[in-house]
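EI: anyone free to look at a 487-residue chain?
SC: sure, send it
EI:
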Amino acid sequence: MAAEYQITEEETDRSNRFLETEPVGKLIRKYSVPCIISLLVGALYNIVDQLFISNASYLGSYGNAANTVVFPLTVIALAAAVLIGDGACAYVSICLGRRTAGNARKGVANAIVLSLGAGILLIVLYFALEDPLLTAFGGRVNEETFGFAEEYFRWITAGILFYVFGQAMNPIIRSDGSPKFAMVSTLSGAVLNIILDPVFIFPMHMGMAGAAIATVLGQALTAFLSLWYLFHMKAVRMERSDFRLNRAVISKILPLGMTSFLSQISLVASMAAINNMIRQYGALDPVFSQVDYAQIPMAVIGIVMKFFQIVISIVVGMAAGCIPVVGYNVGAGRPDRTKALFTKILTAEACVGGLALIIVEVFPRSIIRLFGAANESAFYTDFAVKSFRIYLCMIVFACINKAAFIFLQSLGKAKESTALSMMREVVFGVGFALLLPLRMGLDGVLWSMPVSDILTFIFSAAVIFVTYRELNRSEARQAERSAAESA
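SC: here you go
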């Protein structure tokens, strides 16, 4: 048994040693690009649904608003998945960097069991709490929206286990040194969804149910591909005993995934606040208080959030894709490479935010045309243009903030990362969404986002400065040791 374990250690070292030796820029491209594509594809599930729904004349803005109502419930499922998956990814990467393959095996196996349990639990809870959940996220804006939301919700809930499992396994597959397979598994499911969505919605006239079924089938394909990979891992080879839940391992995995979890779950709290403020203050607006237009603010904010999700998918993908690289170099004692990664990632994230800012400020009408503006009133387009330009005007800061949260997580600084994430999404995100409309009405909902991002950036900048100082000190100590050894 001891000899068997030693072989596994040697194989692990050989398969992942390149994380400590290859150029940092090359590793960022190798790991970040597939992760970005995976997350973009994951985001496309809901966005593609909304694109086809908004362009179906029998669904339109009512179906769009219903999609916005259900969207936070898929984010709750994603929160459970990233809690387990990102935590396991960071833990397994650090274990591999320290050459402790036994702990890495247990980490992957325990993550598999936890993700299956979380998916089953969410199905039970969602079906039991259907009405209050849809109401909590603004579904009562009008009867048509609530009816469409119920239809979409039930089918999405039926397949939530596939979604949780597939999303949880994706970062674990990356930690095994296979970012391309992680990308392909997610991409395959999204392509199937894109193919089935128009078929189910238009010629088959299946409505919201058709959009949801197409999504679930795509998620099921991703889950089955992920399951296949687990039996063909490179650096981690699990045994039956590894699947016993291990309290010590779980206590390491969950804190490392807590930042990802809180960034998603706190986003749900923010969505709940925003959706309800939209419903409340939209009812006081001269235009949107009319029955025929009541669903427009909800539909539009959903579209703006989907665009933001695309940008954040790139940002998170860039940073999260490097978690295995950062974790390995932290475990291997290479602060010089860790600092280089941090610098390149922050610079790239700021560039992504700058490009996104240009798009939302210059081309908002082009974006909203993709989401059925031709079939809606002028109020739909006017409110969308206003929403894009205000809600996302500080998107550069949002990108840098998100990069800082994730990088701290990959360094093992779960407390600092969690504190910043909670501050952004709960203290500022929910707080300003509730307070600003008191003075500014519906516009206050839009301004809650940029105000939150500005204030969070102030704290993020301070943490970034402290992190650089710590890495510089570690690098200096490393240089002193190297000089002493060479002497």
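EI: Confidence is low (pLDDT under 50) at residues 1-8.
SC: 👍
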